[in-house]
Amino acid sequence: MKIGVLALQGAFREHIIKLQALGVDAREIRLPGQLQDLDGLIIPGGESTTMGKLAVAFGLLEPLRSFTRKRPVWGTCAGLILLAERAAKQKKGGQPLIGGLDITVDRNYFGRQVDSFEVDLDVPVLADVARPEDPDGPFHAIFIRAPAVIETGPEVAIIARLPENGPVVAVRQGHLLGAAFHPELSDDLRFHRYFVSMIEEA
Ligand code: GLN
Q: Residue 94: how many CA atoms within 13 Å on its side-chain side?
């Protein structure tokens, strides 16, 4: 299985390391031609405006859009913003999005004062992929100037919310997965296993 990680900017190396730990052939993607033989793609965290502008400059925006229509893609943090159909409170034309997930995201939802935090999330779907060597129970999630999902369309499944029925922070719509936090920074392979399982079933 070959999984690409968009490597224009942001936390791509950490995703590569996690994928390699799962025995996946993981590749850094910077050029449109490199998308061709991938089974799936991760769009990492970083800065979504910068990543979007670089995608335009590298001629990647349209190739990423057509890849996203066909094959499994997982966006984490800034990557989730890029996979959203809509970003709230943004100037029109200010932020090129790839789209695909029928959601509205609010960038920097948690504001500046509490812009980074860690929290244990209940993520029921991870139980389906966990191995004996994995941690069990909640997923320890790291949020860094994270977005939240403030609207979900009818086809979107909510995978995780912050505790006490808080904002939505992970979603799935068919072959597309989004997480508002940074699973590649946690000492836990279960979220990456879950994405691999989506590719196996695709
Ligand atoms: N706040 C960033 C953005 O709007 C995302 C932060 C992250 O990916 N850690 O793009």
A: 7
Number of domains in the chain: 1
Residues of the domain holding 59: 2-201
Ligand 1 centre distance from Cα of residue 145 (Å): 6
- Ligand 1 mean position to 131 CA, how many Å? 31
**How confident is residue 31, by pLDDT bands cut at 50, 70 and 90?**
very high
Decide if 187 contacts 139 (C-beta within 8 A).
no
Atom of ligand 1 nearest to the CA of 49: 10
pLDDT digits (tens, 9 = 90+) for 78-126: 999 999 999 998 777 678 999 999 999 999 899 876 789 999 999 999 9
CATH number of residue 76's parent domain: 3.40.50.880
Query: Best of 43, 106, 144 to mutate for ligand 1, by most ligand atoms within 8 A of CB?
Result: 144
pLDDT of residue 177: 99
- Whether the CB-CB separation of 25 and 3 falls below 8 Å is answered with yes
- Tell how far the Cα of 132 is from the centroid of ligand 1, in angstroms: 33
Among 80, 145, 186, name the best residue to mutate to test ligand 1's pocket (greatest count of ligand atoms within 8 A of Cβ). Answer: 145
